[in-house]
Amino acid sequence: MTDPHPTPPRHSRRSLATPFIIVGLMLAAWTGWWFYLTHQIETRLDAQIVALRQDGWRISSASRTITGWPFRARVSLPHADILAPSGHGIAAPELIAEASAYNPDKWVVIAPDGLTLTRADKGKVGIAGDGLRLSVSHLRERFPDLRVEMIRPTFTAHRDAQPFPIASADRILLNVRPHLTNGRAATDEMDVAFELVDARGRPGGPVEGATRQGRLTARIEGTVVNASKLSGMDSAGVFAAWTASGGRFTAIKGELEAGESRAHIESTVLSADADGRLQGDVALKAEQPMAAISGLASSRSGSVNRLGATGAAAATAASGDRGVDLVIQFRDGRTWLGPFALAPAPKLF
Questions:
Q1: How far apart are CA 335 and CA 343, in angstroms?
Q2: Phi, psi of 203 (to 5 degrees)
Q3: Which tens digits make up the pLDDT trace of 188-207?
Q4: For the segment 127-137, what is each residue's pLDDT rounded down to a tens digit?
Q5: Pairing between strand 166-168 and 261-272?
Q6: pTM given for the model
Q7: Nearest to 223 by CA among 284, 273, 267
Q8: What is the SS3 string spanning the chain?
Q9: Mean pLDDT along residues 210-239
Q10: I need a surface site. Which of 5, 99, 191, 229 has the fewest CB within 10 A?
Q11: What are the backbone dihedrals phi and psi of residue 202, each rounded to the nearest 5 degrees, phi first?
Q12: What b/e string do you get for 52-75 counting C-beta neighbours within 10 Å, with b at 16 or more?
């Protein structure tokens, strides 16, 4: 006789718990990996600090913390103060370095409350902005990819420090990565791209003069040869050993906008002399160059040779608003336009 009320089949509670057990095991394994990773980060950071101090670096900070579980590793360094043997350094109320726990080969470092840049013999300048960040990736490669970005930065020189060339900008971007030849990284070369957008010069300075109180935009790229010699920050500066080994910039090209003036620039090679001053020739296809040169002549900067700039402005006046081909020469520690010395050549170290 058939039972009119059959007992429903019982389902194993074990089958219901299995997904939760699997998730729990995965979470435990991931947590173990996160703690292992953060321990490795602390160990390597301590070792790196010890090595740098032995090389003459001065590094100090308040007690650091590591957070970010489960998906990130976030290292906070309050009151960070880092000074290289060259005399260059940075200090910040806080530096934060962050990486994905599943990809610790890429790090982003930010200064949320701004920082102070120490410029060796030139003194300190405070930098604030909407975003100050450094990202570095491919750390296992010979040359990692490096990106520095500043969003709407402002620059304020400290008391008794030399003035900073610009007061503010909309954006500053620096990209450094291995040079590729036929799709493969070259042995000892790096590509560098620099972008300065809508910069305003400091009052009375050469940038304000050249732009006639307007804005400066520069986009420049090139290749660094003998890039491995750029390592180290000794008392002579990072470029000294590089220069002594024959280091140079090649395939330089870019665009400049200074107020009403425009120019396309190219240079086959630029290097530095024994004093660290840039040397070489830069070809310019310029539009309305007289506006920038005459503005430079009227600036109150002590570094500008106003007599030379006035002569250069007069020499280019004949072109009017037409485009003109010019050559800027860096030689003997000076910047020359034809026979006219305009200012000291840029100094690398």
A1: 5
A2: -55, 130
A3: 899 999 999 999 998 888 88
A4: 999 999 999 99
A5: unpaired
A6: 0.84
A7: 267
A8: CCCCCCCCCCCCHHHHHHHHHHHHHHHHHHHHHHHHHHHHHHHHHHHHHHHHHHCCCEEECCCCEEECCCCEEEEEEEEEEEECCCCEEEEEEEEEEEEECCEEEEEEEECCCCEEEEEHHHCEEEEECCEEEEEEECCCCCCCEEEEEEECCEEEECCCCCCCCEEECCEEEEEEEEEEECCEEEEEEEEEEEEEEEEEECCCCHHHHHCCCCCEEEEEEEEEECHHHHCCCCCCCHHHHHHHCCCEEEEEEEEEEECCEEEEEEEEEEEECCCCEEEEEEEEEEECHHHHHHHHHCCCCCCCCHHHHHHHHHHHHHHCCCEEEEEEEEECCEEEECCEEEEECCECC
A9: 81
A10: 5
A11: -70, 155
A12: beeeebebebeeeebebeeeebbb
